[in-house]
UniProtKB/TrEMBL annotation:
Keywords: Oxidoreductase. Gene3D superfamilies: 2Fe-2S iron-sulphur cluster binding domain, sarcosine oxidase, alpha subunit, N-terminal domain (3.10.20.440). This is Proline dehydrogenase. Pfam families: Fer2_4. One of its GO terms (molecular function) is iron-sulfur cluster binding.
Length: 109
């Protein structure tokens, strides 16, 4: 039998004892991440499900496949666009921003 709330988190289910949390940010909002989390996992843990908009239509996107195949999870991380958030380990101080389209809008292309 599982406890309600935190007892059913992935870490609790496998009885993981991660190291101390550290800070990252998403669109200027401070978040915490745990060692071993991908950027996508850290965003999910904070309740953030979308961090990119499509080139045409501006539809929101986040992680879909979770294994690096679909490219739906592209994000701008530390000013580098087109980073696959599901594969990229979160690092202390990472600055993640919503990626609009190709992430190169500042180039006018
Ligand atoms: S969620 Fe599919 S590549 Fe990241």
């Amino acid at each position: 039998m599982f406890r309600r709330g935190g007892g059913r988190s992935p870490a609790a289910l496998v009885r993981a004892v991660p190291g101390p949390a550290y800070e990252i940010s998403f669109d200027g909002r401070p978040l915490t991440a745990l060692p071993g989390q991908s950027v996508a996992a850290a965003l999910w843990a904070a309740g953030i499900l979308a961090w990119r908009t499509t080139r045409e239509g501006g539809s929101p996107r986040g992680a879909f496949c979770g294994i690096g195949s679909c490219y739906d999870c592209l994000a701008t991380v530390n000013n580098r666009p087109n980073q696959r958030a599901c594969l990229l380990p979160a690092r202390p101080g990472d600055v993640i921003t919503t990626q609009e389209g190709t992430g190169h809008g500042d180039l006018g292309v």
